[in-house]
Amino acid sequence: MIDYSEYLSFLCSALESQNKKKLILSENTSLVADIGLSSLEVMEFIEKIEDHFDISIPLNILPDVNTIGDLATKVRQLNL
Amino acid sequence: MMFDKFKPMADFQAELAERSVEPFGAITEKILSATEGVVQGRNVILAGTNNYLGLSFDPRCIKAAQDATALWGTGTTGSRLANGSFAEHQALETEIAQFYGVDNAIVFSTGYTATMGMCATLAGPGDVILLDADSHASIYTGVKLSGAEIIRFKHSDPEDLAKRLRRLGDRAHQTLIIAEGIYSMLGDVAPLQEIAAVKREYGGYLFVDEAHSMGVMGATGRGAAQAAGVEADVDFFCGTFSKSLGAIGGFCVSRHAELAAIRFCINSYIFTASSSPSVIASTREALRITAAEPELQAKLWDNCNRLYQGLKSMGLPVGPTASPVVAVAMEDRSRTIDCWKALMEAGVYVNLVIPPASPSTNFLLRNSVSAAHTSAQIDAIIAAYAGLISAGLITGTQAH
Fold it and tell me: Would you call B167 exposed, middle or buried from its count of C-beta atoms within 10 A (0-12, 13-18, 19+)?
């Protein structure tokens, strides 16, 4: 079973191409407030995660996602 | 502060005002015909109205509306569930069901409340909704209210839809798949044959919004599913009376008898006043004309092809195929606003579309075609775009 840190590591590396401000990404980095992702870019990122883990991420979870860590937790739950 | 989130919009409106441009909610001071009006003091060709069959000024529809007003009054003053179901509403429900060859129909007060209400009600907690990523705002609003698990599939991508249904396993059978016939912003037609095939393979229910394709596609004008030959695979059709039929209102039709019970569970049906009798009467007449006069659809497509080829031949970035919606995609917001203003000054009203209303980061000059446009009007629209090129606002090969 993949643990939280592995999800986090994948999400951080997958975000690098969209990390235009060259921030040091961590579980506390906000997708919108810090990285500055637009709603369209968030959805592109979500699709990248979905294809990698072969899962579908429901839109319902997104209001609860602020940071990379939030998303790692949600993806882990979906992929259990 | 509560109002802080509106500041970017307020700033944008202020920018438009400073540039003396009013593209959103531009006031039509006078309507001269189905295709001409006076907007912001200018006589313009209306190329952004969704009046696909040009029926808003059909004398038969006007007469039906006038007669109904005299007979039934100006409004129903109540909801369909209370005092607002007149014999006219019931007759339209019978006729729209017959038009689609099914037994069950619900008539709503607007297309938005039809689609939103059905999407909010059909699937619920424990169910799954798989919707096209470029779905209309009424669909997104509805599914958010549903309580179902909401998953997007890539726009018009049957393979992505199949992948997501596979991931659902047994839950695929309790999934509502949502697609549109023609997508409103770019005018592209959904691959409904392929989507229907995926549904047959995995199960689920298929919902198709024919708002922009009813009256426009299909041998008898039922829409994109009829044109694709897959109506038997569609569980629910939604649509509007405010485009091809030239009035306002919406509908859902289905072969499922359960629609009779669903009717009483839809808030946007129960808790809003029903359509005025005049609106229902003109819609009934427009529906009859749509079925009886397929030459209207043929004329529409002649005009679509004329506009599409005209813009494409100048190298403008239009969609892959001709459609009643012909959108020119732009990358720069300021330049797009300049183009919209220049088109108005040239006597052509089109829709200016900015993200997130457009399905990408592009800005759109959205043209909609009517069967009532004359060839000369279509040529005038094309000439106005040629003027944009001459003025250096866009280039013929790629918009700025």
Answer: middle
Chain B partners within 8 Å of A39 (Cβ): 356
A39 has a chain B CB within 8 A of its CB: yes
pLDDT in the model for residue B360: 80
Name the strand (E) or helix (H) holding B178: strand B175-180
Instruction: Collect all residues of chain A within an 8 Å Cβ-Cβ radius of residue B154.
Output: 47
pLDDT digits (tens, 9 = 90+) for B216-246: 999 999 999 999 999 999 999 999 999 999 9
Query: What is the per-residue pLDDT for B357?
Result: 82
**Closest-CA distance of chain A to residue B240, Å:** 27
Residue B356: the pLDDT is: 80
Q: Where are the domains of chain B?
A: 4-56+294-390, 59-292
ipTM of the complex: 0.91
Cβ within 8 Å of residue B368, ≥6 positions away: B47, B48, B49, B50, B51, B52, B324, B325, B326, B351
| Best CA proximity match to B300, nearest among B192, B216, B377, B184 | B216
Give the residue-averaged pLDDT of B155-176.
Answer: 97
pTM of this structure: 0.94
In CATH terms, B4-56+294-390 corresponds, of 3.50.50.60, 3.40.190.10, 3.90.1150.10, 3.30.70.1170, to 3.90.1150.10
Give the model's confidence band at B20: pLDDT under 50 very low, under 70 low, under 90 confident, else very high: confident
Is the CB of residue B344 less than 8 Å from the CB of residue B39?
yes
CATH of the domain at A64: 1.10.1200.10
| Residue B50 to residue B53: CA distance in whole angstroms | 9
Question: Which architecture, in CATH terms, is B59-292?
Answer: 3-Layer(aba) Sandwich (3.40)
Question: What is the distance, to the nearest Å, from the Cα of residue B18 to the centroid of all Cα atoms in its chain?
Answer: 31
* CA separation for the pair B248, B281 (Å, rounded): 11
Of B1 and B387, more confident = B387
The pLDDT of residue B5: 92
Cβ-contact B251, B106 below 8 angstroms: yes
| Nearest of B331, B356, B5 to residue A42 by alpha carbon | B356
